[in-house]
Fold this protein.
Amino acid sequence: MRWWCSSQSVAWDWTWRPYVGVWLFILVLAVGYGLHLRGKAIPNRRRYAVFFASGLAVLWAALDWPLGPLGASYLASVHMMQFLLIALVAPPLLLLGTPVGSIESLRRHPRVFSLLEQATHPLVAFIIFNVVMTFSHWPNVVDALMPSQLGSFAIDISWLVSGLIFWWPVVCAVPERAKFPMLMKIGYLAFNGLLIRPVSLMLLYAKYPMYAAYELAPPLPGTSAIDDQQLAGVVMKVGSAWLMMMGVTVLFVLWHRRAHDGAGQEPVAE
Protein backbone atom coordinates (compact mmCIF):
# COMPACT_ATOMS: atom_id res chain seq x y z
CA MET A 1 0.00 0.00 0.00
CA ARG A 2 1.31 3.44 -0.93
CA TRP A 3 0.22 6.61 0.85
CA TRP A 4 1.25 9.23 -1.71
CA CYS A 5 2.24 9.24 -5.37
CA SER A 6 6.02 9.31 -5.82
CA SER A 7 8.53 8.41 -8.49
CA GLN A 8 8.86 4.66 -9.16
CA SER A 9 10.95 2.61 -11.58
CA VAL A 10 8.25 0.21 -12.67
CA ALA A 11 6.55 0.02 -16.06
CA TRP A 12 3.25 1.88 -16.31
CA ASP A 13 0.00 0.00 -16.69
CA TRP A 14 -3.60 1.06 -16.29
CA THR A 15 -4.23 -1.09 -13.22
CA TRP A 16 -5.93 1.03 -10.58
CA ARG A 17 -3.92 1.51 -7.37
CA PRO A 18 -5.07 3.00 -4.06
CA TYR A 19 -3.30 6.00 -2.52
CA VAL A 20 -4.67 6.07 1.00
CA GLY A 21 -2.82 9.24 2.02
CA VAL A 22 -4.57 11.20 -0.74
CA TRP A 23 -7.96 9.92 0.40
CA LEU A 24 -7.25 10.81 4.04
CA PHE A 25 -6.02 14.28 3.06
CA ILE A 26 -9.20 15.05 1.12
CA LEU A 27 -11.35 13.49 3.84
CA VAL A 28 -9.73 15.59 6.58
CA LEU A 29 -10.36 18.78 4.60
CA ALA A 30 -13.98 17.82 3.92
CA VAL A 31 -14.76 16.76 7.49
CA GLY A 32 -13.01 19.80 8.95
CA TYR A 33 -15.01 22.08 6.67
CA GLY A 34 -18.28 20.41 7.59
CA LEU A 35 -17.58 20.56 11.33
CA HIS A 36 -16.58 24.21 11.10
CA LEU A 37 -19.87 25.18 9.43
CA ARG A 38 -22.11 22.89 11.47
CA GLY A 39 -24.77 24.75 13.41
CA LYS A 40 -23.86 28.17 11.98
CA ALA A 41 -26.37 30.39 10.21
CA ILE A 42 -24.53 31.29 7.01
CA PRO A 43 -26.16 33.13 4.10
CA ASN A 44 -25.63 31.42 0.73
CA ARG A 45 -24.48 28.29 2.54
CA ARG A 46 -25.11 26.04 -0.46
CA ARG A 47 -23.08 28.27 -2.77
CA TYR A 48 -20.11 28.13 -0.41
CA ALA A 49 -20.41 24.35 -0.13
CA VAL A 50 -20.50 23.91 -3.91
CA PHE A 51 -17.35 25.99 -4.40
CA PHE A 52 -15.46 24.17 -1.64
CA ALA A 53 -16.55 20.74 -2.86
CA SER A 54 -15.44 21.67 -6.39
CA GLY A 55 -12.02 22.66 -5.07
CA LEU A 56 -11.72 19.34 -3.22
CA ALA A 57 -12.75 17.45 -6.37
CA VAL A 58 -10.01 19.20 -8.38
CA LEU A 59 -7.43 18.38 -5.70
CA TRP A 60 -8.51 14.76 -5.61
CA ALA A 61 -8.31 14.44 -9.39
CA ALA A 62 -4.83 15.99 -9.45
CA LEU A 63 -3.38 13.90 -6.62
CA ASP A 64 -5.01 10.48 -7.03
CA TRP A 65 -4.76 7.81 -9.74
CA PRO A 66 -4.11 8.16 -12.68
CA LEU A 67 -2.76 11.74 -12.76
CA GLY A 68 -0.89 11.31 -9.47
CA PRO A 69 1.33 8.36 -10.44
CA LEU A 70 1.67 9.49 -14.06
CA GLY A 71 2.91 12.91 -12.98
CA ALA A 72 5.15 11.54 -10.25
CA SER A 73 6.90 8.83 -12.24
CA TYR A 74 6.46 9.04 -15.98
CA LEU A 75 5.50 12.32 -17.65
CA ALA A 76 6.74 15.81 -16.83
CA SER A 77 3.82 17.20 -18.84
CA VAL A 78 1.32 15.50 -16.50
CA HIS A 79 3.35 16.74 -13.53
CA MET A 80 2.87 20.26 -14.90
CA MET A 81 -0.86 19.66 -15.34
CA GLN A 82 -0.98 18.68 -11.68
CA PHE A 83 0.71 21.96 -10.77
CA LEU A 84 -1.91 23.95 -12.64
CA LEU A 85 -4.76 22.09 -10.97
CA ILE A 86 -3.29 22.21 -7.45
CA ALA A 87 -1.92 25.76 -7.48
CA LEU A 88 -4.18 27.65 -9.89
CA VAL A 89 -7.56 25.88 -10.10
CA ALA A 90 -8.27 24.39 -6.66
CA PRO A 91 -7.19 27.38 -4.46
CA PRO A 92 -9.67 29.99 -5.76
CA LEU A 93 -12.49 27.44 -5.50
CA LEU A 94 -11.54 26.60 -1.92
CA LEU A 95 -11.33 30.29 -1.02
CA LEU A 96 -14.66 31.06 -2.67
CA GLY A 97 -16.08 28.25 -0.58
CA THR A 98 -14.85 29.78 2.69
CA PRO A 99 -17.40 32.14 4.32
CA VAL A 100 -16.13 35.64 5.12
CA GLY A 101 -17.20 35.15 8.72
CA SER A 102 -14.78 32.25 9.08
CA ILE A 103 -11.89 34.49 8.05
CA GLU A 104 -13.13 37.37 10.19
CA SER A 105 -13.02 35.07 13.22
CA LEU A 106 -9.23 35.02 12.89
CA ARG A 107 -9.19 38.60 14.20
CA ARG A 108 -9.59 37.05 17.65
CA HIS A 109 -6.02 35.81 17.18
CA PRO A 110 -4.04 39.01 16.39
CA ARG A 111 -0.73 37.30 15.63
CA VAL A 112 -2.30 34.82 13.23
CA PHE A 113 -4.32 37.52 11.52
CA SER A 114 -1.27 39.79 11.25
CA LEU A 115 0.73 36.96 9.64
CA LEU A 116 -2.13 36.29 7.23
CA GLU A 117 -2.36 39.99 6.35
CA GLN A 118 1.35 40.21 5.61
CA ALA A 119 1.61 36.93 3.67
CA THR A 120 -1.36 37.80 1.46
CA HIS A 121 -0.24 41.32 0.61
CA PRO A 122 -0.31 41.33 -3.23
CA LEU A 123 3.42 41.98 -3.64
CA VAL A 124 4.37 39.36 -1.05
CA ALA A 125 1.88 36.87 -2.50
CA PHE A 126 3.30 37.43 -5.98
CA ILE A 127 6.86 36.78 -4.76
CA ILE A 128 5.94 33.70 -2.70
CA PHE A 129 4.00 32.11 -5.55
CA ASN A 130 6.68 32.66 -8.18
CA VAL A 131 9.54 31.60 -5.91
CA VAL A 132 7.74 28.38 -4.99
CA MET A 133 6.79 27.81 -8.63
CA THR A 134 10.43 28.14 -9.75
CA PHE A 135 12.03 26.27 -6.84
CA SER A 136 9.59 23.33 -6.93
CA HIS A 137 10.26 22.79 -10.65
CA TRP A 138 14.04 23.14 -10.46
CA PRO A 139 15.63 19.89 -11.70
CA ASN A 140 17.77 19.24 -8.60
CA VAL A 141 14.76 19.77 -6.33
CA VAL A 142 12.44 17.55 -8.36
CA ASP A 143 14.99 14.74 -8.64
CA ALA A 144 15.78 14.93 -4.92
CA LEU A 145 12.19 15.00 -3.63
CA MET A 146 10.04 13.06 -6.08
CA PRO A 147 11.46 9.56 -5.33
CA SER A 148 10.12 9.67 -1.76
CA GLN A 149 6.48 9.87 -0.77
CA LEU A 150 7.25 12.55 1.83
CA GLY A 151 9.19 14.63 -0.70
CA SER A 152 6.43 14.33 -3.30
CA PHE A 153 3.89 15.31 -0.64
CA ALA A 154 6.01 18.37 0.24
CA ILE A 155 6.00 19.55 -3.38
CA ASP A 156 2.23 19.12 -3.70
CA ILE A 157 1.53 20.96 -0.43
CA SER A 158 3.89 23.79 -1.38
CA TRP A 159 1.89 24.25 -4.58
CA LEU A 160 -1.41 24.32 -2.70
CA VAL A 161 -0.25 26.74 0.00
CA SER A 162 1.44 29.12 -2.44
CA GLY A 163 -1.67 28.98 -4.64
CA LEU A 164 -3.91 29.90 -1.71
CA ILE A 165 -1.61 32.81 -0.84
CA PHE A 166 -1.51 33.95 -4.47
CA TRP A 167 -5.29 33.95 -4.95
CA TRP A 168 -6.14 35.33 -1.51
CA PRO A 169 -5.83 39.08 -2.30
CA VAL A 170 -7.95 38.57 -5.42
CA VAL A 171 -10.70 36.39 -4.01
CA CYS A 172 -11.02 37.15 -0.31
CA ALA A 173 -12.58 40.30 1.16
CA VAL A 174 -10.59 39.91 4.38
CA PRO A 175 -8.16 41.50 5.15
CA GLU A 176 -9.53 44.65 3.50
CA ARG A 177 -7.20 46.27 0.95
CA ALA A 178 -8.49 49.68 -0.09
CA LYS A 179 -5.36 50.25 -2.20
CA PHE A 180 -5.95 47.04 -4.20
CA PRO A 181 -9.20 47.73 -6.11
CA MET A 182 -10.69 45.59 -8.86
CA LEU A 183 -8.65 47.07 -11.70
CA MET A 184 -5.42 46.37 -9.82
CA LYS A 185 -6.58 42.80 -9.25
CA ILE A 186 -7.09 42.49 -12.99
CA GLY A 187 -3.56 43.80 -13.58
CA TYR A 188 -2.17 41.43 -10.94
CA LEU A 189 -3.56 38.38 -12.73
CA ALA A 190 -2.79 39.68 -16.21
CA PHE A 191 0.86 40.35 -15.31
CA ASN A 192 1.21 36.86 -13.85
CA GLY A 193 -0.37 35.39 -16.97
CA LEU A 194 2.01 37.22 -19.32
CA LEU A 195 5.11 36.76 -17.16
CA ILE A 196 7.75 34.56 -18.77
CA ARG A 197 9.38 32.36 -16.15
CA PRO A 198 12.87 30.80 -16.37
CA VAL A 199 11.65 27.23 -15.83
CA SER A 200 9.23 27.28 -18.76
CA LEU A 201 11.99 28.61 -21.05
CA MET A 202 14.39 25.93 -19.85
CA LEU A 203 11.83 23.21 -20.47
CA LEU A 204 11.05 24.51 -23.94
CA TYR A 205 14.57 25.10 -25.22
CA ALA A 206 16.81 22.61 -23.38
CA LYS A 207 18.52 20.23 -25.80
CA TYR A 208 18.62 17.40 -23.27
CA PRO A 209 16.19 16.15 -20.62
CA MET A 210 16.42 18.20 -17.42
CA TYR A 211 14.79 15.75 -15.00
CA ALA A 212 16.47 12.42 -14.29
CA ALA A 213 13.22 11.21 -12.73
CA TYR A 214 11.47 11.37 -16.11
CA GLU A 215 14.47 10.67 -18.36
CA LEU A 216 15.19 7.37 -16.59
CA ALA A 217 11.55 6.38 -16.02
CA PRO A 218 10.23 3.34 -17.88
CA PRO A 219 9.08 4.84 -21.20
CA LEU A 220 5.45 5.07 -22.24
CA PRO A 221 4.68 4.02 -25.83
CA GLY A 222 4.86 6.94 -28.25
CA THR A 223 6.65 9.32 -25.87
CA SER A 224 10.20 10.58 -25.47
CA ALA A 225 11.70 12.44 -22.53
CA ILE A 226 12.65 15.54 -24.53
CA ASP A 227 9.28 15.81 -26.31
CA ASP A 228 7.46 15.34 -23.02
CA GLN A 229 9.68 18.00 -21.42
CA GLN A 230 8.91 20.51 -24.16
CA LEU A 231 5.21 19.77 -23.79
CA ALA A 232 5.59 20.43 -20.05
CA GLY A 233 7.03 23.86 -20.86
CA VAL A 234 4.05 24.61 -23.12
CA VAL A 235 1.61 23.43 -20.45
CA MET A 236 3.27 25.67 -17.85
CA LYS A 237 3.31 28.79 -20.01
CA VAL A 238 0.09 28.46 -21.98
CA GLY A 239 -1.89 26.76 -19.22
CA SER A 240 -1.02 29.33 -16.54
CA ALA A 241 -1.65 32.21 -18.96
CA TRP A 242 -5.04 30.78 -19.95
CA LEU A 243 -6.12 30.28 -16.34
CA MET A 244 -4.99 33.79 -15.39
CA MET A 245 -6.90 35.24 -18.34
CA MET A 246 -10.00 33.35 -17.22
CA GLY A 247 -9.62 35.06 -13.85
CA VAL A 248 -9.14 38.42 -15.58
CA THR A 249 -12.33 37.86 -17.57
CA VAL A 250 -14.36 37.07 -14.45
CA LEU A 251 -12.99 40.12 -12.62
CA PHE A 252 -13.62 42.38 -15.59
CA VAL A 253 -17.23 41.24 -15.88
CA LEU A 254 -17.75 41.82 -12.13
CA TRP A 255 -16.09 45.24 -12.32
CA HIS A 256 -18.18 46.29 -15.33
CA ARG A 257 -21.40 45.03 -13.73
CA ARG A 258 -20.74 46.85 -10.47
CA ALA A 259 -19.69 50.02 -12.25
CA HIS A 260 -22.85 49.88 -14.35
CA ASP A 261 -25.04 49.21 -11.31
CA GLY A 262 -23.25 51.84 -9.21
CA ALA A 263 -22.22 49.26 -6.62
CA GLY A 264 -19.09 50.07 -4.69
CA GLN A 265 -18.25 46.61 -3.41
CA GLU A 266 -14.87 45.33 -4.56
CA PRO A 267 -14.43 41.81 -3.21
CA VAL A 268 -15.05 38.76 -5.35
CA ALA A 269 -16.13 36.63 -2.38
CA GLU A 270 -18.82 38.08 -0.18
Notes: Residues 263-267 have pLDDT under 50 and may be disordered. The chain has one domain: 20-261. Residues 20-261 form one domain. The chain has 13 helices and no strands.
